[in-house]
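Q: Hi! First time doing this. I have a protein sequence and I read that you can turn it into a structure. Is that right? Here it is:
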Amino acid sequence: MIGIVVSRADRASTHIAERLLDLADWTERTDGSRADADGGGTYHVLGRAGADGDERLELRSFDDLHIRLDDPTPAFSRRPDYLVFVSRHAGDTGPLLTCHFTGNFGAAEYGGEAGSFAPACPGVQRALVAGFDEHAPDGYGVAIEGTHHGPTDLAVPAVFAEVGSDEAQWDDPAGAGAVARAVLGPERGATVAVGDPERPRHVVGFGGGHYAPRFERVLRETAWGVGHVGIDWQLDELGHPGEHPAVLDAAIRASDADYALVEGERPVLREALADRGVRVVGESWVRAVDDTPLALVDALEAALVPVADGLRFGERAADDVDPTDGYRVDDLPAELLAEAQGIDADATRAAVETHAVAFETEQAGTRAAGRVVLPVADADPYDALVDALAGVLRGKYDEVAREGDAVVARVESFDPERAATLGVPEGPKFGALSSGEAVEVNGRTIRPETVSRRRERAFPV
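A: Yes, that's right. Below is the predicted 3D structure, encoded as structure tokens:
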């Protein structure tokens, strides 16, 4: 169940609440056990489609501003899976739909406790951004923000969903309606965590500006979720990272993250995070790993090279390959691979990715080279890869065949020396013969096959 928190002190919040109630068939109820100012009195519930009495949304209103609230979780009729605080956004950013988690890396000037963080829900944040993208009115941007302000002492994960950035947008029915539709959307499958709940695919983030574009890219373009983000001004509030390990621990724990993504060098912060037991990774690592099973990533980085040194993952990594004994390691056929890359680099990369669990690369991950990991579930995975690479050679050669321990490629090509002995002058007639056209020389017809030579290359495999 999703708990929606509305603040009567926030006109954008009440506006979003009005749009929520307009967009669906809610049931009005009364809670006489709590004061109206504290979420009691009239509240609203929305059931699942076709389900009687199975509420998936409950909307409660409070008098205080969100950032000054104590934990509103007890106000709800049952413990929510997570809370969504519908709210205003203020800033100099123009019309904007945005969301973020709450916490304080330093002092608690705007609610909550210093050095404390509410539990994050990266899966919900992903769903909200998708909903914002779908419903944003013309002229509105979509963003995520770094972690800031309260409340922090919450029993369940929570996220702020906001419309901004000034009074015109707070009163705009289209902007408020877009936030409302995004909040209604998570019934389509959003969860608190991203990936396996036992080992969520989350990063805790550090560095960058308030609107965290690097972390928004990760959220939008990879299979990873983003937990708390310590943006630059919040890290300034933190001070020396090594002197505040409890704050780092709290941010990591509230993000449910085993990985930290750091923008910029920040060697002291990186060392402090490593001491906290999280792995510090870069955006390229996150993109390369994407949705590859994390246990398999661990095994292959240990068996071959780290992702940072060129390990990349193929399509077969998604085939539930056992990270202990579900793969074999072979050398890529270097000469065949090099020839195929020279003919069609994209087709060669596709051939390797299609058949491989993983492979080593060079040139900043752009060219396969070195070793390849193949699934043992296939009868002849290496032969299948060789055949795929041999297929690329057919873009240049007339005949390509596997012969013993080699791929043999043959081509009939224009022989300029033979043409010269027959009196063909260099120039246009050379070009015509090389293109497969016959030419006239001193009253004789010289056909292309007369001045061609069969060339053969063998590529060991």
